[in-house]
Amino acid sequence: MGFTVGRLILVSVALLIFFGVAERVLDRMHLTDKQALLVLGAIVIGSFINITIYRSDLLTVRMNLGGALVPLALALYVWFKAGTSKEKIRSLAGAVLTTAAIWLLGRFVTNEYALPVDIIYLYPIVAGLVGYLFGRSRKGAFVAAVLGVLFFDVTHGLYLIWNQMPGLVHFGGGGMYDTVILSGVLAVCLAEFIGESRERMQGGPGSENRDPSVLKNLRAAGMKGGKHHG
90-115 pLDDT, tens per residue? Predict the structure, then answer.
C-alpha cells in the first residue's frame, strides 16, 4: 500500500491536533487530544491489516481494520455521545440517505462521462455534503458520513448475493479506505465552518443538540446560547 490521500489527510489532522488547532472540534466530539491521536494511529496502522470474515465459491467478505472497524467504533462512540435523541435519529437517517446518495452516484455516473477525477473521490464529497445536511451537528455529520459509506459496502454485498454474482466485499479496503476518511473529515469540516460562521453571527454557540454539561461550561464562561446545533 502506498501513502494514499486518506493517510495524508490523517497526518494533516494529526498535526492540527498536535498544535492545538482542532481542540474546539475535539471538544464537540467528546475526544481529548491524546484519544484522537490514538484513534488516528489505529486507523493508519489498521489500514495494513485485512481480515477475511467470510469466503465461499461466490462471495468473499473482508474487513480492513483501519478503514472499517476503527471508524465504525469511533462513529458509534460519537453517536452515543450525541446530545439529544433527535440528534441521534437525525444522524442515523443521514447515514441511510448518504448510502442512497453514494449508490445513486455509482449507479448513474460512470467514467463514460469523462470525469476529471476517479469517481471514488466523488463519493466522499457526496457523503460529506449529505452527512452535514442531515446530521447538522459536528457529531451528527461525522456519524452520518462514516456510517453511510460503511452501509454502502453492505448494500454492495447484498447486491452480489441477490443476483448470485461472484465478487468481493471489502469493508474499508482499497479506494473505500480513502472514502471513509475523507467523508468523515469533510463532514466535520463543513459542520465546523458553517457552525462557526453562524455562531459568530448570532453572538455565541447554540443550545440545540448540545450536551447539558457542555452548555453549563460555556455559560459559565459568559457565552450565550442560540439556535445552532453543536
Answer: 999 999 999 999 988 877 775 555 55
- What pairs with residue 15 in β-bridges? none
Helix axes 175-202, 122-135, angle to 10 degrees: 40
Q: What is the pTM of this model?
A: 0.80
Q: How far apart are CA 226 and CA 137, in angstroms?
A: 14
Could you give the CA distance from residue 101 to residue 88 in angstroms, rounded to a whole number?
20
